[in-house]
Amino acid sequence: MKATKSAKEIVIEFEAAWLLGDYATVRRLLADEVTFAGPFEAVHDADAYVASLERAGERLERMEIRKIFAADDDVAVFCDLVMKAPLPTSFVARWYTVEDGKIRAARVVFDGRPFASAAPPARS
């Protein structure tokens, strides 16, 4: 019997898929009713979160992971997101909660001030 993946392994796979633009894998790793909260938007389903990640991915050059912490079903990723010019590099804290092998919640914190003029309008 194959052991199930840890929350940390799931998050690492998710982050790698996002960086590669593999949105089919990104979607597979999300619970249907995933919640996401960040400086510019909050969404409450997987398809909306994937769309948000696709928009961000268009502006991303690379991600430099600084540290990953895991405690049970919670995983925190601290990284630098190196964006395509003229956007700045941003230090980002990402907190994921994994349930039943899928990401159930994602929260992202960073200084959004340099990005405010480039952000899409908030959705209602």
Automatic annotation (TrEMBL):
It holds the Pfam family SnoaL_2. Transmembrane segments: none annotated. Residues 13-104 form the SnoaL-like domain. SUPFAM superfamilies: NTF2-like. This is Nuclear transport factor 2 family protein.
